[in-house]
UniProtKB/TrEMBL annotation:
This is 3-oxoacyl-[acyl-carrier-protein] synthase-3. GO terms for biological process: secondary metabolite biosynthetic process. InterPro entries: ACP_syn_III_C (IPR013747), Thiolase-like (IPR016039). Pfam families: ACP_syn_III_C. Keywords: Acyltransferase, Transferase.
Amino acid sequence: MQEVYITRMAKFLPYEPVSNDEMESVLGLVNGKPSKVRPIILRNNGIKTRHYAFGAGKETLTNAQLTAKAIEILYKDKEELKEMELLSCGTTSPDQVLPSHASMVHGALGIDPVEIASFSGACNTGMQAFKYAYLSVASGDTKNAVATGSERMSKLLTADKFQPEIDKVNEIESNGFIAFEKDFLRWMLSDGAGAALFQDKPNPDGVSLKVEWIDMTSFAGSLETCMYGGGVKEGSELIGYTDMTAEEWLNQSAFSLKQDTRLLGENIVPRGVDFLETVIKKRNFDTKSVDWFLPHLSSEFFRQKIHEELGRRNIELPLEVWYTNLSRLGNVGSASPYFMLEELMNEGKLKKGQKVFLMVPESARFSYTYALLTVV
């Protein structure tokens, strides 16, 4: 295994930021009524602005287009882009079931044949793409690789996606509001794409990030589904859309994103710290060495929860070393860790010798990534 360096980072955010007061005018009113939970969710999640890949009078950008734009920013020009040996893409929100997301990004770039890899799931897909790119270069299979994390959640959150379900409910009772598990995520998620270039040599000028290690795990063997789309939950069982009728797809908003907030609250923090204890032991890792801690937070609500749990386990990661951009960019799922790294790298915040530690939790069925990078 040879040393691997992140030599460039880039991000693409569509259009201008959308404020909390503007959200419902963009996403629309379900059944013509303002959401009852929107003010509560926004107060807890701490997000002030986010980006959407569409708006009144604007071209709707696909996930593949967002990702391609981030990659194009990564390179100086089309000629340099031709040197890419591997394209590794992760997303929660591909534009279609088939072809794969990486195939569509490759198509949007319009470049010569290149090896591709696609990862589907939720927040950790960006880090799965990240690790695949790292391992490709570390093994010597390629000299360079591009990894991406991207989301275009907004089109799953628009009011029209829920109207058939509301119409069905209104036949039975005068309710007019979608269930909390579905409304919750409408005010949490946003759009954008991040990209990282991995190479077998560091930058001759400026800083690079040497990848020390990346560790991942899943708790799906013992925990049920928490966040999901393309199906419905019956008790603890997830019923996928292929076992539903086309009528049920509409009447139950099967393709909307849903979150079991009870399961989320009970498990997301303690299971993540359980795995961190395993990583610390495996890597003989002293968290006191960390200069920058980049936790992917879905909500500011979890900042203090994580900090308190770390304290209970005697794991030292003081709030002074935490760095997030959730309030400005929103929760962009698989792209969020890329956005934090991009800001540190491109805004001159890093100094050689510093340690950068990433934490990426995923609530879909509880999986986690930790990664350690050294500034060189």
